[in-house]
Amino acid sequence: MKAWQFNGTHKPFTRVEIDEPTAGPGKVVVDVKAAGLCHSDVGILEDEKWLAFTKVPIVPGHETAGVISEVGEGVTEWQVGDRVAVWPMLGPFGYGVNGGWEARAEAETEQLVRIPEGLSFEKAAAATDAGMTSAGAVFGKGEVKAGMKVGIIGFGGLGQIGARLAHLEGAEVYVAEVKEDVWETAKAQGAVKVAKSITEFKDDNLDVIIDFAGFGTTTNEAIQTVKFQGKVVLVGMGRLEATIDTNPMILGQVTLVGSNGGSKDDIAMVMKWMASGELEPTITMIDFEEIADGVKMLEEGKVTGRLVAKVAD
C-alpha cells in the first residue's frame, strides 16, 4: 500500500510502497479517512533534536481518523465498521510507530476514541492533536477556570481551538496573532481583544498566557506580560530553543511550564464540542497525495487554521 515516509532530517518526505499492517493481539487496523499535518511535521525535517524520539524510516501522521477494518485477537469492545480517532500519545504515533500518513494504520485499542455521530473525519483528525493539545494546555497545565483572564499567543491550528475552549469555559480571552486577516475571526470566537503582540495586553493583568507559537521571542514576551505570580504555558515548538529574560520571571514570580499533548478524555471533550456546533475550527483541506506540498505550505506560513489531508472516497 502507499504511504508517506520520513527518511531523516533535511530529507523530503517520500511517497513509498510498504506492506499492509495486520491487526496483532489487542490491536486493530484503521482504514485512514483523514490525517492532519502540523508544524512538528516541519520540525522533524529541519531539526536533528527530533531524532531523539523519532524512528527512521517512519510513517508520520499523528492526527488520524478512520474506520476499523480489522480487529485482532482478544479485541471485544471494538468491531469492524466503528468510526474512531487515534490518541497519538502511545508509541508515540507517527514517531515511534507508523502513523496515519498511510492507507491503513495499526493502532492499540487503548488509543481509540469513538467519533460522535455526525462529526466528520476531518474534524475528528484535527481533534486528536490540535484539539487534544489545546485542551491539555488550557485546562490541564493552564488550569483555566471561568472568570480568568487568558492570553493566547497564535491563532493558528491550535490557538484557535484553545481560545475558543477558554471562552466556552467562561474565561476572558486575549489573542496575540501577527496575521491581521484572522483578527475578526478571533473576535467572533470570543476574544475580547486582539493584537499583534501579547505585550500589548500588559495592563490587562492576564492570569495565564498560553504560547501556542513557541518561537522563543513569544515565550519571553509572555513572561514579561503575565501578571505578578501568573503562569505561562509553553506549547508551540516553532523553535526548540529560547532566550528568556530572567529578571521579570524572578521578580514577577512567574511560573513557566511546558505542555505536551493531552488525554483521551481531552479528545472526547473536543469532539463533543465540535459535534455540538459550539467549536468550529478553521480547517484547510488538501488531498492525501498533496501532503508533501502541505508541509511546505506550513513552513511558508500559508495555512489558515488546521491543515488536514483527506482520503478520496
UniProtKB/TrEMBL annotation:
Residues 8-309 form the Enoyl reductase (ER) domain. Keywords: Metal-binding, Oxidoreductase, Zinc. Pfam families: ADH_N (PF08240), ADH_zinc_N (PF00107). It comes from the Bacteria. GO terms for molecular function: alcohol dehydrogenase (NAD+) activity; zinc ion binding. InterPro entries: ADH-like_C, ADH-like_N, ADH_Zn_CS, ER, GroES-like_sf, NAD(P)-bd_dom_sf. The keyword DNA-binding does not apply. Its cofactor is Zn(2+). It is an enzyme of class 1 (oxidoreductase). One of its GO terms (cellular component) is cytoplasm. The keyword Ribonucleoprotein does not apply. It catalyses: a secondary alcohol + NAD(+) = a ketone + NADH + H(+); a primary alcohol + NAD(+) = an aldehyde + NADH + H(+). Its EC number is 1.1.1.1. Belongs to the zinc-containing alcohol dehydrogenase family. This is alcohol dehydrogenase.
